[in-house]
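Researcher: Next entry in the queue.
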Amino acid sequence: MQPLPANIGRLQALINPYALSLRASGKADKTLRTYRDAVTKFAGWLLDSGASAEEVVKVVRDDWADVEKTDIEHYMIWLMERYSDGYANNQYRALQQFFKWHSDEEELPNPMAKLSPPKPGERVVPVLEVDQLGMLIKDCDGKSFDARRDVAIIRFFASTGARLAEVANLDINDVDLTTRTARVIGKGDRERIVKFDHKCAQAIDRYLRVRARHKLADSPKLWLGVRNREPMTPDGVYQMIARRGGRLGIPVHPHMFRHTFSHRWLDAGGAEGDLMEINGWTSPQMIRHYGRSARGARARRAYDRVDVMGGV
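Model: Structure for this entry, 312 residues:
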């Protein structure tokens, strides 16, 4: 999930009228929020001179009327370099609705009129190496509130494969350190129980001890903000992970932990049915999507057991 930009300047001027038109057309609150957030994220990308796709020099835009077809194409490339094909496709569909509205409202050409949505590919999704995960954990050494909180969050992601929203929205009563389990609410409000390892349990226990001194210790939310601030949001958790990875030179986002967990489970010979249950999947297609990197790793190990050259 991309974090929402803090400031999009002049581009903000049309987002509220667009949201108003969505509400007037009867769009559900969740749909309205999804569409509005997609446009806001694209606006942030347009203004960010550093957010370029590989081998693409991006032109900064601060007026919707200046957006061109190539801007949207470059944005899709940038998204697909960092997120899933499904996420990029969803962002495309949301932008498509905005630019149709913008074209009608402002009587301007629609830059997406002749564009097609990004096609799903068979790209191998990057996973975290063991030493990279170790670096992220070591970066949280210390007894401060944020150090103990962040290492608990990172270990929870890594040992459960849970989604960003599932981790960020945990209540304190959702976690049982004795059984090393947590109740999470997944997509479609489906509830499931996930298991975490002993080191994660220890990290959460240490965090809970410093959390008890927080001004908002009575809050039901598990993850509280630093310096007695409000509980963390999904965007806040995302930014914490990206920030810690960025200063270590590790390109990481929360969903990468889910891919890494699934990769290691399958690469170690874990049952596919068990992984579906743990990850809250209802379609076996997800096994194929998440398991591709594990299949590749097994095939590369098998290479050295097969004499393809016949001794020549």
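Model: The radius of gyration is 22 Å.
Researcher: Noted, moving on.
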